[in-house]
Amino acid sequence: MFQILTKIFKTAGNVTPITKEDLQHTEIIQIGQEINKKVKKLFRGSLAIREVDAGSDNSCEQELVALSNPFYDVERYGIHFVASPKHADMLMVTGPVTRNMAEALRRAYNCTPTPKIVVAVGDDAINGGIYKGSYAILDGVQNVIPVDYSIPGDPPSPKTIMLHILKILGEYDK
Amino acid sequence: MNILFWTIQILFVPAVSPLMIGIIRKFKAMFQKRIGASIFQPYKDIIKLLNKDEVISKDASWIFRFAPYIIFCISILIGASIPIFTTSFSGLPTSEIIVVVYTLAIGTFFLALAGMDVGGAFGGFGSSREMTISAFAEGGLIFSLLTIALISGSTNLFNISNNILLIQGKSIISLILAMGGFILILLAETKRFPFDNPSTHLELTMIHEAMTIEHSGKKLALLEWAAANKLAIFSILLINMFFPWGIATNFDILSIMVGFVSLIVKILIVLFGIAFLESTIAKFRFFRLPDLLLDAYIINILAICLIPVL
Amino acid sequence: MISNNIDFILLLSIFLLGALLSLIFRRNDRLANYCANGLAIIGSIWGIVLALRHITNGYYTNLSLEIPALRVLSFSIRIDNLSAFFIFIISLITLFASIYAIGYVQHYYKKYCIGTLGFFYNIFILGMLLVVSSSNAVLFLVAWEVMSVASYFLVIYDNNNPKNVKAGLVYLVMTHVATAFIIILFLILFKFTGSFDFEIIKLTQATIPAYIKDIVFVLALIGFGTKAGIIPVHIWLPSAHPAAPSHVSALMSGVMIKTGIFMMIRMFLDILQPVPVWWGYTVLIIGVISSLLGVILALTEHDIKRLLAYHSIENIGIIMLGIGSSLIFSSMNLNSFALVGLIAALFHTLNHAVFKSLLFLCAGSVINKTNTSNMAEYGGIIKYMPLTALFFLVGSMAISALPPFNGFYSEWITFQSLFQGIAVTDITTKILFSLSAGGLAFTGGFALMCFVKVFGITFLARPRSIKINKVKESSFSMLIGMGGFAIISLIFGVYSSFIVKTIKQIVVDMTVFRENVDTNAINLTNSININNNFADVSGIWVFLALSIALVSTVFVFKFIINRKQKIVTGETWDCGTDLTPRMEITSTAFASSMIRILRRVVGPIVTKEVKFDKDNLKYFPKSIQFDFKINDIYGKYIYKPITDSVSWISLLVKRIQGGNTNIYIMYILLVLLIALILLL
Description:
The complex is a heterotrimer.
Chain A lengths: L1 H9 L9 H5 L4 E2 L6 H7 L3 E7 L5 H8 L12 E3 L8 E5 L4 H13 L5 E5 L1 H5 L21 E3 L6 H12 L5
Parallel strand pairs in A: 2-3, 2-4, 4-5, 5-6
Antiparallel strand pairs in A: 1-6
Chain B lengths: L1 H30 L9 H10 L3 E4 L4 H20 L15 H21 L3 H32 L4 H8 L7 H18 L18 H4 L5 H26 L10 H28 L8 H18 L4
Helix pairs in contact in B: 1-3, 1-9, 1-10, 2-9, 3-4, 3-9, 4-5, 5-6, 5-7, 5-11, 7-9, 7-11, 9-10
Chain C lengths: L1 E2 L2 H19 L4 H29 L1 E7 L9 E5 L1 H24 L9 H20 L3 H19 L6 H32 L4 H7 L5 H19 L8 H7 L2 H26 L5 H23 L4 H28 L3 H36 L15 H14 L6 H19 L2 H33 L16 H19 L1 H12 L14 E3 L3 E3 L4 E3 L1 H22 L6 E4 L16 H11 L1 H4 L1 E9 L8 E10 L2 H22 L6 H19 L1
Parallel strand pairs in C: 1-2
Antiparallel strand pairs in C: 2-3, 4-5, 5-6, 8-9
Helix pairs in contact in C: 1-2, 1-4, 2-3, 2-4, 3-4, 3-10, 3-13, 3-17, 4-5, 4-10, 5-6, 5-10, 6-8, 6-9, 8-10, 9-10, 9-12, 10-12, 10-13, 11-12, 11-16, 12-13, 12-15, 12-16, 13-14, 13-15, 13-17, 13-18, 14-16, 14-17, 15-16, 15-17
């Protein structure tokens, strides 16, 4: 136990900062209708994200998992990942939506209570990415459930994902 | 003066409990060398959940719809019946040790039923595990409260708190043993390490979370808040029953201030202890947990036998 | 004290009339049903009035019939406060059980003879009434036999099912073995006091030597304990109670086993006082073991009525805890605490009768509609039988001792009497009391878990079999029967202090408390107050506090905060797969963690048989059969050795009957020779 304690005290804190500059340089890609300002304000302090893997190659998952580590620490903005879509406000979908996961994705969407935001993360989720045209996939999340925003990248880095989420919620948007 | 006192007594626990959860999370974040959410984050979570809509399974009956209200009202009722910063009060009708234990059991009963109600795969075994732990924890809980009741000669919570202040040196060992037993029960009932991980995502490791997986919106807000209330209730019981020095014994403004400040300091120590435990040890395997709870019971029997004969 | 003998004779004759009429009209099912149950209802109302008159107005019934030529066959009935209390319990349960039965018995029309059901039902109640009021050992034994035999016929009533007949046989054998012990008991008392009359025995029992009294104690414990259902003589209970029709199960479980408790209280605390302290220790230990083992075995059951029968064993254990602590205190001359213990036992007797009958009646309704008593085939019944589910919920909360229902208050007083034991006794007794109180605490926890399981699996989630599709709500009379018990359960909880005050008046009259009792140990105004404010609980205020909290929470959160919330009905979250009813939790699975933890006590036997596609390559299983059974410890280690040794002895003795006439003549000569030698 004391080894852990000494390690904790010796390690320097190293959280990646997010500045206003970064946010100004980020463009969010809006696919569906603009999310209501009231909804954005409701989620601004506390966002519960449910991550749905619709047949992805796990590259985006790794980046999403990295969001909760001590470097990127997405919790400082009140954002946390939850275990059930019924607790969630935002669905982050990764993967090009294989045929076998299409129904599961629809059920997760139906189980999420309104108001909700759907974000497609990664090029695969937007339009099929490098797997586009394959017989096994449905070429992007927007063919299965209505998508509101998308985050491009293969995979997008955790900092990019965080900037996009903050921009979607309109934080620092005074 | 009376109205003010009643308002504070009723509203203290629900008002402060999300803050306590926030402080534990902040301590844990500090241990992990990250910034973490602000200590007021649970308030924002609850307010957001109260403003969301709900999705309820078509297999749910009135028990599912009604249970969160029952569980929350039980936690508020017990929160109002415990001594918080003064002991000069005869207490509510529920301020008696056995009544407190069994009233909290009503909450557990309905939570377990609501978990089984929708017929999902997770709620059922969550209920099963929760009831197994709770069955073993009841013995330890009744006995740790009984030990201090016997030392102080009354089973009313306020009288116990008052009389422990006047404790003589001979009963200190029993008090310490009873406190040790109660700490184990606190961890069991509030579903903290080593009994349950409150922030897990893996359904096979969930106990409390598995039962709340189907709730959303207002019901989820009430359940989360009730769980926070339970943590607050057990922490305040630990502080004011087993270590009440600093608490006010009359309605004097100065002593109430002192009582308030000492309560805050002691709560912070308890929260730091819980966060420390969560950051250094791992969650125990499920079948090792009843051993821990029976240990709590046996420690308390030992404490009772060591009370010098009255 | 007003003497009033006519009332009781009237009571007995109403039930006798009901029995005879139902036998006379046995060709007509409906008429027999109404006669039997209708007269039982009238009789039970009269019984309640009679009992209340006795308790509150000091009425006194004393009947006796002496036949000088046959001295031992005198006939005497004496109803003092304790008997009146038990008559009240019998009548109350009979009232609602009979109302329930009017609707319930209809599903036996055309299958069995309703006339015989009505006949044995009324005779059974008659027997019970005579058992608690008789004051003479011979009359007592006659009434005891009437009660046992009538209930045997009721247990095997549904005789198309061979399990019921076997259950009846086990019950008959066990109850007659118990009666044998009781007969020996009374014969020993007759030898030393010269009379079969209870009052005379009470007056002359000081002359009985101490070791004889100890033998009497053991005989009484086994004899009356078998009827009560203590461990280890309980094995008839889990088979017999489920076999009977449900309203009879309610009566057997709620009232008949209490007659065993009644006689134990009568014997130990009234007639044979003063007693040595080890009697109290024994009763206390038996109480702890019965309650813990009863509830643990209940957890392993998946047949709903067997489960409820095991819970009866558990509650008898709790009542024995109260009696045991009372005995210990009275032997230590702490009579005021003994008062608390006895009040706890009597109050729990009353409460258990009410909520156990409620649970059996609800279980009967469910079994009636689904034609199965296996919980693995239930599920989702709350949508088809909402009122039955509500009453079962009330019963579950009452038996798990949750406020504001009545079970909580009687367990509270039991706890208080055990706490007083911990506080004021020396170290060995203190440890015994601590272990008993711990046993009671754990029993409460396990019972809560068991009833979450029963209620959840029976009524909640989705149906697990297609038998549920045809389920409809119970008929009106059945609903009134169940609803009556549910409301009484709540009322007894809320007004618990008044009921305890009445019980205190009853108890103060008993011999053990005649001298030096400080009745301030338990004070009752509108709250129950133990030992000068050591502990205090008020039924009314707790109920008010809970209701106010609930109403204000619902009001604030449903109608004030976020009124515009939309609630959408969707699917259960199943991680995106197809959720079938087979994926819900089952009763075996619910209890499996507990069974694994307690495996040394319960002894589960798990067998797994796997059949593979290709036997030489064991890669792809074709089918898996998984068997999960509970070891029958009592049968294997206690009863089978006893029955085997009895059979072995009988086989040995058989050799005396050689069949050869010459051997018989030799026996006669031998006996004559020995008799001659003894005479000389």
